[in-house]
């Protein structure tokens, strides 16, 4: 199993998934395989599980154990991982068929958007981070604002931000755009408005002053840490969290969203301003229209709730009661 899992992950790596996605594949495959080994008769450890022994019955039992403490979305993701794994094994001639259609899977609910709460929260965040903070050991507001603005105004994911190069922002003045290496190897181009362009330019100029002109070569990572090295996943998450704390808006960030709350804010505001699901899909790099539609549905629900909060409705309710 261990060898086959690694061969599968090597094959998937050609599609350029994020390291986080590859880790999720490995974790789902190893966890369910270990549960299948424990359900076998006699029980065996993971390193003794034989792929041809994984019958539909054994896999159903393993997935039943896997599903007990987990959400439907996690079970759905694991099922998809195993389905892709067996599809690979069939293509390689390792097994004769894919048993996963005989293993039930829950319908995964579409994740609900988690934008920043509060009408002016994004503007408050940017304004606060743009100010020099004497409490910081090495303040770099130009870099911090550029990171937040790229997520808020271009809707980039964490992995997409980390993959950007200086040359990713291209085009003539007034026609600037950012070329994004999207999820699942799907590239996309997002327009860059002049205000965002000026923030990125100001950041690169501040970087050249800190580390020299060679630090902003076209093939250099766009986002770097305070030592000039490419930002990594943990560093970027810490940077965004620290910006939330400095702005005092931690209570307006949905649980578990962190940087993704900025991307969701971008999409939600697109929907509020009348963008179609197809437009949101293209700008965010969604694989399906259904994912983009959730932003429009949530926005419609928020609009109805806002209308419902109008005090006049209570007057109307009283009139209806009198009429009855």
Report on the structure:
By secondary structure, this protein is mainly alpha-helical. It folds into 2 domains: 2-102, Tyrosine recombinase, N-terminal domain (DNA polymerase, domain 1, Orthogonal Bundle); 121-308, Intergrase catalytic core (hpI Integrase, Chain A). The protein has 13 helices and 3 strands; from the N terminus they run αααααααβββαααααα. It has helices at residues 2-13, 19-39, 56-67, 72-91, 121-130, 141-154, 158-163, 194-211, 233-247, 260-272, 277-284, 289-308, 312-323, and strands spanning 169-170, 177-181, 187-191. A 3-stranded antiparallel sheet has the order 1-2-3. A hairpin with a 6-residue loop joins strand 1 and strand 2. Helix 2 crosses helix 3, helix 5 packs across helix 9 and helix 6 (141-154) packs across helix 10. It is elongated.
What characteristics describe this protein?
single chain, 324 residues, mainly alpha, DNA polymerase, domain 1, hpI Integrase, Chain A, 2 domains, 3-stranded antiparallel sheet, 13 helices, DNA recombination, DNA binding, DNA-binding, Site-specific recombinase XerD, Integrase_SAM-like_N
Mean pLDDT: 86
Question: Low-confidence runs (pLDDT<50, min 5 residues)?
Answer: 303-307
How far from one another are the termini? 71 Å
CATH class of the largest domain: Mainly Alpha
Helix content: 55-70%
Named at the architecture level, the CATH assignment of the largest domain is Orthogonal Bundle
Domains counted in the coordinates: how many? 2
CATH superfamily of the largest domain: Intergrase catalytic core
CATH topology of the largest domain: hpI Integrase, Chain A
Keywords: DNA integration, DNA recombination, DNA-binding
Pfam family, one: Phage_integrase
Organism: Micromonospora yangpuensis
GO molecular function: DNA binding
């Amino acid at each position: 199993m261990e060898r086959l899992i690694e061969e599968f992950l090597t094959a998937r790596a050609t599609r350029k998934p994020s390291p986080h996605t590859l880790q999720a594949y490995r974790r789902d495959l190893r966890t369910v395989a270990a549960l299948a080994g424990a359900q076998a008769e006699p029980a065996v450890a993971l390193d003794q599980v034989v792929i041809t022994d994984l019958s539909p019955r054994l896999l159903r039992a393993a997935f039943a154990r896997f599903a007990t403490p987990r959400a439907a979305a996690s079970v759905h993701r694991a099922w998809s991982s195993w389905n892709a794994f067996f599809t690979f094994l069939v293509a390689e001639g390792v097994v004769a068929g894919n048993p996963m259609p005989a293993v039930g899977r829950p319908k995964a609910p579409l994740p609900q958007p988690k934008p920043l709460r509060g009408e002016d929260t994004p503007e408050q965040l940017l304004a606060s981070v743009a100010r020099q903070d004497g409490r910081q050991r090495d303040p770099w507001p130009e870099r911090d604002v550029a990171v937040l603005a790229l997520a808020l105004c271009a809707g980039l994911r964490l992995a997409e931000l980390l993959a950007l190069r200086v040359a990713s922002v291209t085009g003539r003045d007034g026609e600037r755009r950012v070329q994004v290496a999207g999820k699942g190897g799907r590239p996309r181009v997002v327009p860059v408005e002049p205000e965002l362009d000026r923030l990125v330019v100001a950041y690169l100029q501040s970087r050249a002053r800190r580390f020299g002109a060679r630090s902003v070569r076209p093939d250099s990572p766009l986002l770097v840490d305070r030592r000039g090295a490419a930002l990594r996943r943990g560093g970027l998450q810490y940077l965004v969290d620290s910006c939330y704390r400095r702005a005092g808006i931690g209570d307006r960030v949905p649980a578990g969203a962190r940087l993704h709350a900025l991307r969701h804010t971008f999409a939600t505001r697109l929907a509020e301003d009348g963008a179609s699901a197809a437009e949101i899909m293209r700008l965010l790099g969604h694989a399906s229209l259904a994912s983009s539609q959730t932003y429009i549905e949530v926005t419609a629900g928020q609009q109805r709730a806002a209308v419902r909060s109008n005090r006049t409705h209570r007057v109307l309710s009283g009139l209806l009661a009198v009429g009855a």
